[in-house]
Amino acid sequence: MTDVSSRFIRALKREKVDRPPIWLMRQAGRYLPEYREIRAGAGNFLDLCYNPELAAEVTLQPVRRFSLDAAIVFSDILVIPHALGQTVDFREGVGPVLDPIQSSRDVAKLDASGVREHLDPVYQTLSRVKAALPENVALIGFAGAPWTIATYMIEGGSSRDYVKTKTWAFGEPDSFQKLFAVLEESIADHLIAQVDAGAQALQIFDSWAGLLPDGAFQKWCVEPIGRIIARVKDKKPEIPIIVFPRLAGARYMEFLKIEGVAAVSLDQTMSREWARDHLQSGLVVQGNLDPVYLVLGGEALKQEAEKILQIFAGKPFVFNLGHGVMQTTPPEHVAELCDYVAAWRP
Length: 346
Ligand code: CP3
Hints:
CATH class: Alpha Beta
CATH topology: TIM Barrel
Number of helices: 16
Order of helices and strands: HHHHEHEEHHHEHHHEHEEHEHHEH
Bound molecules: coproporphyrinogen III
CATH architecture: Alpha-Beta Barrel
């Protein structure tokens, strides 16, 4: 197995590693001039996501530049609603814009039958990247969690208060669950297909998990993710799965109780001492540098990285950010961080 040589996969399997592996959420993207160049020639953002040759190239760009232990396939969480037949558009300076779904009638129109076929270019991207990656760099596949994807589908994009999504979830849980049933099935299928295409680990992004009030978190974050993981593990029992329930606070603990979670990715608000004491004995911990330190660079960046390494290293740990790389990040700062972690020893 090629996985044997990858530091990232070994860390996720709790095997001994010489130093913590590192990769960064949104390591491919607009902070890299070579990305902006390809993006400018590719048409709109979704065209780039569905172009295996260019998407593979963009996936590999950060791996060529920096000492990273993993690549994450270049795609987006919103390809799922798009594959289900919803109109999705990425507008310059605005972000994602969707034709919002508003009722169970709209849910009934979603068509899960063509998801795999629609997303075939993503699987082709994974195969291309896998063939091009050195053996010691692992390949990550990903998907959004149902709750986070549902917020975009219902609000029609980003939102300030998420009232539409929450009103539906709290007021009509049965019809909301029908939407989730479609999402859970498509997300699980999409993750399984990514493993077939070469993904060696998976991450589930629940970026808006922190919006869920007490009582609803279990039902709309933990349980749906648990059902997706069960489906994936049924077909792919060996695949390590990382869950990112952003801004969930102490509720990260709930993922200790879910079968099949290898790791949790911590956002930057999480107390590291608390995570070490309450999570790291049962789960691999990934995280949690504030992405603004990468904008800052220099000594402040190194000192903060050192603090994180001191607290988590020696136990199962993957170095990452608390959220994605910011657009204003100087690429040299990413090099500084990756070199620092690559040279670090416990
Ligand atoms: O390098 C990687 O991490 C892989 C690629 C990746 C993208 N999006 C590319 C992208 C991944 C893993 C994502 C996940 C994603 N997409 C999330 C979850 C993680 C998070 O950030 O919380 C979410 C919520 C989305 C939805 C999304 N996609 C938004 C809100 C936006 C617009 C905001 C923005 O930064 O422009 C996108 C667009 C997007 N996805 C870009 C990239 C590189 C920028 C698009 C561009 O090139 O113009």
